[in-house]
Predict the structure of Glutamate mutase sigma subunit.
Amino acid sequence: MEKKTLVLGVIGADVHAVGNKILEYALTEAGFKVVNIGVMASQEEFINAAIETNADAILVSSLYGHGELDCQGFPQKCKEAGLDDVLLYVGGNLVVGKQDFEEVKKRFLEMGFHRVYPPGTMPETAIADLKKDLGIED
């Protein structure tokens, strides 16, 4: 499999490092080159890492409920930085309180994200989507 580069991180003030490391491990084992920028990452850190590594996808994780606020304007900033062709995935507990995930998903898709995952999504789901979206054959 051709190695595709992924930028992975936890946006905003979120510090869920364990889940981030599990994703890094699963994505690496699946054959991706993973650039993990860690926790408490800003939008600019994701964008700069994607530019520096010529990334194929950016995976944004958030579990503390403020992902919707932290991700406001992010897809537009990616486009302004010339990352039009970079896939944007986001997942986790993205909003405060219990909200219908389909409504949350719709809002993130309207923001410009390509894939949106609810809390508890297994890494295999994102890996299968990445392979499909990046045209990778098993």
